[in-house]
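RECORD TYPE: inverse folding
INPUT: structure tokens
STRUCTURE:
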């Protein structure tokens, strides 16, 4: 019953343990000292890709990333790792990261056996004010007044109105569309387009600067001091002119807000470009055209579970043609595991081990004359034994290798002759024979030997023999050959 219990526990621990160790041995990706993890989001295929390298400008290892699968394991030599990513257009995508540190399940098992929507502006405000002026033009006491002072104030307000009628909304939306279309494929093309769009922004800004200057230079209070018209009355004229000026000012700031939103979008894109090119920062050769997105701590005995999430977010044109923020929508999420690189990875396996050993057995003999039982003569027995064994293999990590050498210790559990085994072996990483291991080494067996009794000593029965037996090492040690499988 004890043997069955031991085997059951071995099977359970071996299965749960190997699920972790096999990932490292078969799929673990080594990151050596001074190396970084570079990422790129493939827009065409909506895939996250990676490459391990010291620099993006390494002529011996040019940047050619491959697809990053979920739950990829990276084996890091240093105590921390920097993650860099090719820039994405912030008007279209955002990248977030999260890191969680957990106990390393391999070492743990060995010790036991990671927005606000900008509302659209009303599109009919300009028309309302223009219609107000047009409606007032039918009032002879207002527009058709022959008074020179009245005409002068009216003309200045009409000048502001005409500038506001030159609506820059179409041009603003065109520039915004071009900003969103930037794919950040390479820095040269991105810089060229940003410079071109900056010129367009400057033209639009000049338009609003001129209007603002007209509004600020117009002082109704000063104008009314020289008002000398009989009709309309000064009080009525001031009220009407002030209402129109307020409406024109409101329209100006609404139109200017649209430009401000465009300018924010441009600065967001330009800031991403500058960070990717390390403008006004600490320049690091070989890291140009990449963004530092995370620093992952690497601790012995721990695993950093790091999650990267890419979302569609940023700004779009609403149905009303206004620049508004969008609600984030998840496009892709990848979780990687980062653990401290160990040259030897422990792994529990179960299998069979063949060994031979010799031991001495004793029988009994009976003297009928004296009616006495004695300890019989010793008999040396030679036995070949197949043990069901549990082994702790310390696999030597070799990247992209079909075979992993290991050293092991183990215990045979299925006979009355306990056997401690220590040796060397090879673990297969070849398809169809993956996770099968062959080993061999020294086997130390415990065999039963008499403690105080000797051949010829009188005894009362065979029970006296059993009580006197004790386990001792069988010396010299023997050899074993083992076959294991890692579930």
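DESIGNED SEQUENCE:
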């Amino acid at each position: 019953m004890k043997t069955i219990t031991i085997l059951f526990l071995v099977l359970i621990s071996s299965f749960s343990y190997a699920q972790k160790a096999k990932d490292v041995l078969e799929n673990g990706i080594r990151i050596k000292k001074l190396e970084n993890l570079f990422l790129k989001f493939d827009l065409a295929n909506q895939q996250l890709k990676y490459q391990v390298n010291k620099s993006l400008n390494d002529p011996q290892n040019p940047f050619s990333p491959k697809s990053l699968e979920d739950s990829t394991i990276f084996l890091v030599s240093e105590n921390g790792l920097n993650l860099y990513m090719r820039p994405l257009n912030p008007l279209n995508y955002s990248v977030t990261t999260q890191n969680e540190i957990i106990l390393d399940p391999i070492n743990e098992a060995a010790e036991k056996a990671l927005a606000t929507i900008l509302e659209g502006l009303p599109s009919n405000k300009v028309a309302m004010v223009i219609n107000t002026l047009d409606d007032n033009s039918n009032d002879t006491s207002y527009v058709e007044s022959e008074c020179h002072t009245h005409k002068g104030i009216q003309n200045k307000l009409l000048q502001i109105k005409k500038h506001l009628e030159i609506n820059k909304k179409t041009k603003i939306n065109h520039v915004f569309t071009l900003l969103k279309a930037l794919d950040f494929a390479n820095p040269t093309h991105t810089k060229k387009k940003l410079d071109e769009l900056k010129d367009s922004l400057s033209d639009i800004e000049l338009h609003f600067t001129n209007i603002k200057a007209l509004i600020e230079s117009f002082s109704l209070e000063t104008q009314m001091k020289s008002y000398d018209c009989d009709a309309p009355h000064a009080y009525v004229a001031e009220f009407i002119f002030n209402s129109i000026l307020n409406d024109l000012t409101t329209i100006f700031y609404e139109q200017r807000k649209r430009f401000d939103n465009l300018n924010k979008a441009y600065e967001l894109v330009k800031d991403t470009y500058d960070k990717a090119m390390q403008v006004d920062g600490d320049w690091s050769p070989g890291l140009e055209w990449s963004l530092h997105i995370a620093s992952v701590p690497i601790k012995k005995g721990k695993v950093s579970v790091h999650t990267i999430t890419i979302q569609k977010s940023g700004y779009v044109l609403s149905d009303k043609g206004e620049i508004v923020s969008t609600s984030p929508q998840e496009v892709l999420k990848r979780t990687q595991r980062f653990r401290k690189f160990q040259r030897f990875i422990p792994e529990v396996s179960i299998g069979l081990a063949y060994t031979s050993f010799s031991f001495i057995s004793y029988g009994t003999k009976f003297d009928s004359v004296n009616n006495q039982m004695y300890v019989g003569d010793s008999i040396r027995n030679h036995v070949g034994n197949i043990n069901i064994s549990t082994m702790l293999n310390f696999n030597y990590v070799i990247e992209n290798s079909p075979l992993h050498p290991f050293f092991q210790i183990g215990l045979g559990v299925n006979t009355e002759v306990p056997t401690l085994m220590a040796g060397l072996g090879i673990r297969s990483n070849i398809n169809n024979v993956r996770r099968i291991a062959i080993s061999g080494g020294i086997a130390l067996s415990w065999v039963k030997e008499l403690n105080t009794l000797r051949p010829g000593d009188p005894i009362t029965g065979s029970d006296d023999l059993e009580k006197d037996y004790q386990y001792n090492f069988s010396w010299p040690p023997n050899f074993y050959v083992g076959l294991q499988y890692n579930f």
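NOTES: The longest strand covers residues 372-396.
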